[in-house]
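tmp note - Nuclease SbcCD subunit D
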Amino acid sequence: MKLMHISDLHIGKRVNEFSMIEDQRFILEQMIEIAINEKVDGILIAGDIYDKSQPSSEAVLLLDYFLTSLTDLDIPVFVISGNHDSPERLNFGSKLLHKNKLYITSMFHGTLESFELTDEYGAIRIYLLPFLKPAMLRPFFAEPIDTYDEAIKKVIQTTSVDTSKRNILLAHQFIINGSIQPERSDSENISVGGLDQIDASAFKDFDYVALGHLHGPQKIGRDTIRYSGSPLKYSFSEVHQKKSVVVLEIKNKGEITTNLIPLTPKHDMRKIKGPIEELIALGKADAKGMYDYIYATLTNEEELYDAIGQLRAVYPNIMGLDYENSKTQTAATTSINYDLSALSIRSPLTLFSEFYKMQNNSELAKEQEELMEDIFLQSGENSL
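out:
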């Protein structure tokens, strides 16, 4: 049996105020094609379907298009909620959708919901664990549960998992492997102090664990505990990630292979660096790449007029800009350690001249010094 594992669609997301909806439509259509070409027998979607708990109408319509396209292919689809989703909204009409082989579990009701698929090797049990916080378990268990690790282990311990059969779990949590931490990116919500960490050992009864929550595709502990990652780059900390979907093939128990099939975005997200003249020339020579989402670092020493405007004329989807030159390097490495008691005997012009040199790595010109001296005199400050 072949299954496709995806997660963290974040439909409706905006990155630096740019709507990603058309990029998402492009990549979801690519996923549909992969499902057809790979002849998959099921789709596992491990949370963060939407980017916000109250998704926009265009986000709702895009998800409807995606799920309808998959169910029209008669492919069973299994969905859990992530920390970005509204469980109530995602759960609406879920029971009615079962007849179309769309199985959505967005809320925990005291037991781990599961469904079964069969092939020539027998039954495969698919367990759906929506995003959980310890507080969500209080109505179902008498004993106090304080950590995420305790919460997930408690839910699994109270579930009758037949380990003689093939078992798959969908989960949307932050998983570690002992002291080994997974790769993270800036666009993920991670609790301070590691309070949300869950050890991979909690999943020993499952043959494959389809994870969502982290945006970089990666395995945790073993090849069969895996984050599929997000299908698109959602922050510049992800520029070096290779986005993909996971296609897993399950035969006999313990016989699982995984294949990462790359995704090609409509617009890539990347960083560029150099003098503005060089970056503009490179953009003009790259008819496709000029429309990528760009973060530019300019290395020019001289002051530039409307640098962002110049770059946007070539890179219409530029999202960010900063500078890296001798001035910024000096400012980053220089600190002021004045004796505060001595400040009162230093003239304003002297203090300003030292500050100017620290910021610009050059002395005030004679004309600039004379101008500042006039300003201090007119303001009543003694510049001598």
